[in-house]
Write a structure and sequence with these properties.
Length: 256
């Protein structure tokens, strides 16, 4: 029997893959399905490695390559991703197959055929940390480094690194700089969150998107929430919601 794990943060996609595997291969047993870097890292540290790993790339808490860079695994990995074929050539160069979403039985069968053919090689060869880091750099999106803000009847460019935090109130997004100047920007918080580097900016709640260097201290709040206090004065307290609390603390640890 082939013991397999699935690392996928979308339950629907994980269930689809599991159903396909059960249909086409009776010798595959799904021993675990996980949805985050944190969960997978902990599981691999406490359990024997599986025979094969089906892994998405973009998870809720980052790129899955971080799992394999930090944990010594000999298991072959079949990546499940929505990236185009040009990018995926990098995986093949490292002896790793892939599934291009949306998944179909034919695609899964082709990936498993590669697994069968390369099984012996996979057991001996694991991509190096440098190779995985190269893949991370290649797949990491290009984030916006400049914001265009409104200054009366003019538009002025401001470097993202100079932004301490962004604040949403009554349909208006304000930009607060480290030099304590305040401006307005004609973009939504959702758009800004997707455009700014998540290693630098974190959306703690509906109203605030904050730069990590603006954080002075963090206080515990009731119901497992936190209050983030910045070096700058803010219009109202920055309460980190319960659902964001764990990702927020993990994000903070990345800078230590």
């Amino acid at each position: 029997m082939i013991n397999a794990v699935i690392i996928e943060d979308e339950p629907k996609a994980a269930n689809e893959l599991k159903d396909i595997l059960e249909q086409i291969r009776k010798d595959i047993v799904i021993v675990k399905t996980m949805g985050s870097i944190e969960e997978a890292s902990e599981w691999f540290q406490q359990n024997d490695p599986p025979d094969i790993i089906f892994s998405d790339i973009q998870l809720s808490d980052g790129l899955s390559f971080e799992i394999y860079k930090n944990i010594d695994l000999s298991s072959p990995i079949i990546f499940c991703t929505a990236f185009d074929e040009y990018t995926l050539k990098a995986f093949e160069a490292n002896g790793i197959s892939y599934l291009l979403k949306p998944m179909t039985p034919a695609k899964v069968e082709e990936s498993l055929r590669k697994y069968d053919e390369l099984k012996a090689a996979f057991s001996k060869r694991q991509p190096s940390a440098n190779q995985l880091e190269a893949l991370i750099r290649q797949l990491r999106p290009s984030y916006q480094t400049t914001l265009l803000i409104n200054v009366r009847d003019k538009i002025m460019p401001v470097k993202a690194e100079d932004v301490a935090y962004l604040y949403y109130n009554n349909g208006v997004v304000s930009v607060y700089l480290f030099n304590q100047q305040q401006y307005f920007i004609q973009e939504t918080m959702d758009d800004l969150e997707s455009k700014l580097n998540p290693s630098t900016f974190f959306r703690v709640n509906r109203q605030y998107l904050i730069h990590r260097n603006s954080i002075q201290e963090i206080e515990r709040y009731f119901s497992r929430k936190f209050i983030a206090k910045l070096f700058l004065k803010t219009p109202e307290p920055i309460i980190v919601s319960k659902i964001k609390a764990t990702p927020f603390m993990n994000w903070i640890k990345e800078s230590i």
